[in-house]
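quick one before i forget lol
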Amino acid sequence: RPPPPQMGHKNSKKKEVPATTTTTAITTTDTASKIGVAKTSKKASKPRHERTKQERELGYVDWIRASKFAEALKIAGEEKKPVFLLFQEIPAEERAPQFGDNVLSKPELVKAIEEQFVPVAVVNNIGGADRRILTKYGEPAWNNPVVRFVDSNGKDIIARKGGVYGASGISQRMKDALKAFSAR
């Protein structure tokens, strides 16, 4: 099997975002107004409707992959944003596809992740750059999805918490991370 394609800000293959109207506890304007975090992205007001074709475990978020982790940290510093660091099993069993299909495919969450954070995906069951980052953060291989929030130095903004698989739980963790980040 060939290695997963490097995705991020340079998209080549596209697919449409599902046209759902689900509501979630977080949106970028909601988050910004509730906790006083200013939008820093000039693209924030322009919703994207096409996504990079990628593994279903990653949903519709436009991820920077582990091989570009140093660049992602640099972007986080330049844009003054925290990093949304996903550790995900691909291909996955049980929770991981559900997390991608349900949580990481909700348009409101996708928008908030992409506009308020620098999204980075680390595949927790392969070698190379992904394995180095997995080891750096002490994350187990072949594990259920875990999201960590780190700053441009790679330091945790809020404590790691496993077992958060629902949209409302991820939404609350995002709010907590943004609040802690803005207080620095």
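fyi The chain has six helices and six strands.
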